Inverse folding.
């Protein structure tokens, strides 16, 4: 299922909240039948990623430190869209002209376990792998992190305008709060929060466990408690006062909360969801060692801190916060921002929505679409 409307990163870029992102021209994935990686240089690699997920200077730092040339392309705008783009070649075992790409948890599950288009990271080159945050180390789709490492993470919880709603701590308080409220059009985050409120284990989701949550959401829509389903546009509505509360992503809210102290973000007492965008190496790349060196470089806490200072999402790397503090200035301020640097207690409140079988995924998506009025 694709993220509706703007992706998290598209919103940040178009709103001017993050500047200086890589502005490399997008390229069309290779349609040739060779099985090699994307880099034309024997010591080069080609990487696909989302918009504003690294700064140009950081890419140059990597190249100087490793001697590996990087062709970096911001051509991922949507998980399903990118899957459709690489499918024709990969299902025939042909090159996609890439040695690595970054996709969200549920799509990583599809790539790794269903279509089997990811190859293992080169273990000998993944010397910094042990620096991964414990909360991200063993997801259901890749429990030993053999095929993937998170690029960045975030949480889903409740954002609210405290002037309009007062304090919100639970999902039921969210539903009861006055004013206009919306939920995310990302099914796994919205239903994930509701399932957690129902005491269900979202790391092993089933439709039977989720059905009461779907029913609760449907009642809320029918009764007018929920006004609609949003992608990232809730951010501008929260900032302007047009929206009282929303199920939201932490990285989005982090930006406006700094300028508007009335805007709060809370993980419900019952728990929130934790998502990651994950780096993987396609099976057709002939440069898994070089590609692993790319992700391994960002698992050095010093480099992870510099990356986090630019993108301002949760770093998957232990020790990054200490290095942010050493950078000083605005970077050091991020250490005290719970939306960028959540403590252990906050991370203990969130869980990764587990993989769904093809049949279960269809049931989840169809019910969610019907509630949205799209089914």
């Amino acid at each position: 299922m694709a993220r509706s409307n703007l992706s998290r990163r598209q919103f940040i870029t178009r709103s001017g909240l993050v500047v200086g992102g890589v502005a490399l021209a997008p390229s069309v994935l290779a349609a040739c039948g060779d099985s090699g990686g994307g880099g034309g240089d024997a010591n080069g690699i080609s990487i696909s990623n989302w918009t504003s997920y690294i700064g140009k200077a950081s890419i140059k730092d990597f190249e100087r430190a490793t001697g590996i040339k990087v062709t970096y392309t911001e051509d991922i705008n949507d998980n399903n869209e990118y899957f459709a783009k690489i499918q024709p070649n990969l299902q025939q075992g042909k090159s996609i002209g890439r040695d690595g790409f970054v996709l969200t948890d549920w799509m990583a599950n599809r790539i790794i376990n269903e279509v089997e288009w990811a190859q293992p990271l080169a273990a000998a080159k993944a010397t910094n792998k042990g620096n991964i945050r414990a909360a991200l180390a063993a997801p259901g789709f890749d429990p030993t992190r053999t095929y993937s490492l998170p690029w960045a993470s975030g949480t889903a919880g409740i954002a609210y305008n405290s002037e309009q709603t007062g304090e919100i701590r639970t999902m039921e308080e969210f539903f009861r709060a006055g004013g206009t409220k919306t939920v995310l059009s990302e099914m796994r985050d919205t239903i994930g929060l509701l399932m957690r409120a129902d005491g269900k284990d979202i790391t092993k989701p089933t439709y039977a466990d989720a059905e009461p949550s779907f029913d609760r959401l449907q009642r809320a829509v029918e009764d007018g408690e929920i006004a609609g389903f949003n992608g990232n546009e809730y951010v501008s509505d929260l900032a302007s006062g047009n929206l009282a509360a929303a199920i939201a992503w932490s990285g989005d809210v982090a930006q406006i909360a700094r300028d508007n102290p009335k805007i709060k973000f809370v993980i419900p007492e019952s728990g929130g969801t934790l998502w990651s965008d994950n780096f993987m190496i396609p099976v057709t790349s002939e440069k898994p060692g070089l590609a692993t060196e790319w992700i391994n470089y960002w698992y050095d806490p010093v480099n992870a801190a510099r990356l986090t200072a630019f993108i301002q999402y949760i770093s998957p790397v232990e020790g990054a916060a200490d290095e942010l503090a050493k950078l000083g200035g605005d970077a050091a301020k991020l250490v005290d921002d719970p939306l960028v640097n959540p403590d252990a207690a906050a991370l203990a409140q969130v869980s990764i929505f587990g993989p769904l079988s093809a049949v279960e995924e269809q049931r989840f998506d169809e019910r969610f679409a019907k509630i949205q009025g799209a089914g």
In short: DSSP finds 16 helices and eleven strands in the chain. The chain has two domains: 8-153+276-340, 154-273+351-372.
